[in-house]
Amino acid sequence: MFECGDCDRVFPAGWRARDQHCDATGHHPPDFECDTCDEWFCSEASLHVHMNSRNHWSEGKSHECAVCPSRFFGKVDCTKHEISDHWHCSDCDRTFQSKNNINMHMNSRVHRGRDMKCPFCKKPYTTATGMVHHLEAGSCPVAKNLSRDQVYRFVRQKDPTGIISKKLIGWTGEPSYEVTSKSWDGDCYRCVLCQRGFGSVRSLQAHLDSPFHKQALYHCPNRNCGMEFKVLAAVINHLESESCNAMRFETVQRHITDLVSSDRRLEF
To answer: What residues does the C2H2-type domain cover (predicted)?
Structure first.
């Protein structure tokens, strides 16, 4: 006899009658009910002991979790369960300390290879973040003059509605700074903007050339998130991390590929 998990009503006619009752009332079957018979249990562990001893697993549920006794119809569902519930990678036989750690592992070149290529020099990268940082930093040997400002102008052309780029009225580019002898204060080379001290001219110049004192040019497309970013690579890294659930990692890679390799506007 099958029971309702909310009102304890019993249905001698079978599970179909019980399911019709649940559909009509919004009730649910017991949380830990056997897939095959009408027995149910107070814990998942007790349920799995029963189903293993009686071989009551549903036909086709042949994929067993590497961490717990749960079974699944397909390998994909089993793998998703291991990753999301146990932070475990079966392929590498590794368990991680947090959801973010295993997400970084699953999105690393160990599992994804290096399919993201620079549109200019074709150097391969594992993620869109790496490829975009390569361009914004002026590291591409084919596009050495490419800068953060030029990347922003390019993105604004592809993103006129401001999905990820901020609409900065009258923006013509960021000011540049050059270290002079006046930067030495007798103790160190000091930044006039933040008063931070540096041991060499090169270190101070690198600080001034970095986005540290620049304004935010981008924002997360998830309006409930509200985070802003100074470089395109940072907003892409934020999206790839899936920390605010704006989109899936694969979606980010696909859209950034479209952004740099076609005339289409940016869409998320």
So the answer is: 32-61, 87-116, 189-213
Contact by Cβ (8 Å): 97, 87: yes
Question: pLDDT (tens digit, 9 = 90+) per residue, 199-234?
Answer: 999 999 999 999 999 999 999 999 899 899 999 999
Nearest CA to 153 out of 140, 172, 176, 138 is that of 172
Taking each helix axis from N to C end, the angle separating 148-158 and 232-240, rounded to the nearest 10 degrees, works out to 60
Domain ranges of the chain: 1-57, 60-106, 114-174+214-261
State if pTM tops 0.85.
no
Q: Using the predicted structure, report yes or no on whether residue 79 has a pLDDT greater than 90.
A: no
φ and ψ at residue 140, rounded to 5 degrees: -75, 125
